[in-house]
Amino acid sequence: MLRTQIEHHNYRYYVLDDPEISDAEYDVLLRELQALEAEHPELVIPDSPTQRVGAKPAGGFGEVRHRVPMLSLENCFDDDELAAFDRRVRERLGVEEAIGYVAEPKLDGLALSLRYEDGHLVQGATRGDGTTGEDITQNVRTIASIPLRLRGKAPKVLEVRGEVYMPRAGFERMNAEAAERGDKLFANPRNAAAGSLRQLDPQITAARPLAFYAYGLGETGDWPVPPRHSAVLEALRGFGLPVSREIRCVEGLDGCLEYYRDIGRRRAELPYEIDGVVYKVDNLAWQAELGFVARAPRFAIAHKFPAEEMPTRVLGVEFQVGRTGALTPVARLEPVFVGGVTVSNATLHNMDEVARKDVRVGDTVIVRRAGDVIPEVARVLTERRPADTQPVELPTACPVCGSEVVRVEGEAVARCSGGLICPAQRKESVRHFASRRAMDIEGLGEKLIDQLVDAGLIDHVDGIYRLTRDQLVGLDRMGEKSADNLLAAIERSRHTELARFLYALGIREVGEATARALARHFGSLEALVEAAEADLLTERDEDIKPKDRYPRLQSVEDVGPVVARQVCHFIAEPRNRNVIAALRDLGVVWPDIADRAVAGDSRLVGKTYVLTGTLEGFSRDQAKAALEALGARVSSSVSGKTTAVIAGADPGSKLAKAEKLGVQVLDEAGLRTLLEGGEAS
Ligand SMILES: NC(=O)c1ccc[n+]([C@@H]2O[C@H](COP(=O)([O-])OP(=O)(O)OC[C@H]3O[C@@H](n4cnc5c(N)ncnc54)[C@H](O)[C@@H]3O)[C@@H](O)[C@H]2O)c1
Ligand SMILES: [Zn+2]
What we know:
- By secondary structure, the chain is α+β, with helices and mostly antiparallel strands.
- It has 25 helices and 24 strands.
- Among the domains are: 2-51, Helix Hairpins; 75-304, DNA ligase/mRNA capping enzyme (D-amino Acid Aminotransferase, Chain A, domain 1), CATH 3.30.470.30; 309-391, CATH 2.40.50.140; 597-681, 3-Layer(aba) Sandwich (Rossmann fold).
- The N and C termini lie far apart (96 Å).
- Bound molecules: nicotinamide-adenine-dinucleotide (NAD) and zinc ion.
- Nicotinamide-adenine-dinucleotide is lined by residues 9-10, 12-13, 19, 21-23, 26-27, 53-54, 72-73, 75, 104, 106-107, 110-111, 127, 163, 215, 278, 302.
């Protein structure tokens, strides 16, 4: 059963270059079989996958018999297993002292045998099943880093073994090009290298970014082989063959582990992928003494890096609320060992990503954790999707505070609208409230806010105005003087402006400019609340097109449906209103600015003016505020709907446009008349 399963995956991997499962999963299966066979030696048959290498070639290429077999490597996955290997080696050799090993990066490509006769490349062959490989000489000749002629005095016969691989950069470029053409992408550089090398048309191979590193020998004829593996590699380099510069001689287990950790740290920076380290006994006489088992030498071992990708099941999806209120879907997973740690949660980033990857609860997914990056769901194994999966749905209420969740059309991120009251957003809302352009409370910085919130002294921004001297003095690193300074700054901030206050509330999409526009337009908080409440009703009206909703707020300069919606929802949240009321009770005040409009002097409602050029008696902002106080709208561009353009000195193109459209033009005197209630002419 297990055997057939493994054979199937061998075929997919070695013959088709199109595996169905990850290497880590495959390794688990193989280890299961090894354990089973170790318990029941009578079950071991000679052609069990544990006894064999790779798979028999599928045809299409000529066959090559390897006179020196091409074997696989024993694997180990942790320090203990490596220690056991080192112990076995020393026991077999009867050696006490530390063994000299050669540590080599384990390139993730495929094995290649190159045969040189009298210095000329005569054959290139794949490993196949270890004894019989494929003749891919024509393809091999297209790989630039493989010399067609050896340098120096060449032996009569020399078989060189090594790895063909695809450097990361080439792999990424190739996949990007394939994506552009709409072709199938390669899952990883190994499959890309294998698929490229085993093309029946060498032209295709030639176009692929393949490279080669030599790491060993096959048949050597009468060539006097040097006595150490490290010297062999040096000799190969002398013949002009590429040998990795990362290869090192190390001493004993400790030397191996040190090399492993060092290259593991640099793994992501290497220009090619490696999946571990290979250690080989350096002394070739010892290698011969140690010999082989069925499928691998006893003198070498591959120390694998922990898999960065593993499959597991999605048990559920939860939403985390970030400090700015953003909701992040997080998959709860059946715990899985990946990237060297056990992972039971992985981010799904946002709802667009959930949709793009098509993740459902109950799915089997590939979890990825590379380096120290937070684990993420890389992709779904849709072929393993059961019938009863559940879609992931964005909650309508914030899981932390229950406020409504708002997701703006066209935006990936959904957010909690309870900015002032959501515990997840506490620190951020206090920080923003106190910042210089908002309430400008000097001395209330991030670190202090962390302390105050963590100590439970502030829940919401109104808590700032309840802080006492005793509470402050009790804090870490807070002297009496700084406590007094802070209290004074808090006191000063009570007298503010409506625009600052609106900005300080931290309503999504409401920056300083919008806060100012809202303040100017409505003049008072009450007027804004009233408009927001009325506008909110338009949301439920099916007859109103989305872009025409919130008409009162949309009549504010530069406020479109997106901003209007955020403002309405924020204001409509009763608990946000409670905080605002508490702030006012605690003495936060500002002068209302548009008393005249509020009092009913709104004779310019429905009219739109555009200002251009420099006025003598008004700044641009003053002129604007004065017009808006009478209910007018001030726009920045001239159109057929413009009531009049008010032109000062050195007017710009707006004047020309007004003239072209036949829009009325007023000078500064005309503006005064208009503001004073006379008929402008
Ligand atoms: N996903 C699947 O379905 C599937 C199926 C079969 C095998 N596999 C994967 O293939 C691997 C096992 O197969 P394997 O026996 O081909 O090889 P291996 O990767 O375990 O080790 C042997 C190979 O390592 C390579 N190698 C790289 N650098 C080397 C160096 N410096 N010195 C010596 N050899 C070096 C050689 O090609 C050699 O043949 C595992 O990683 C397994 O997960 C996956
Ligand atoms: Zn919330």
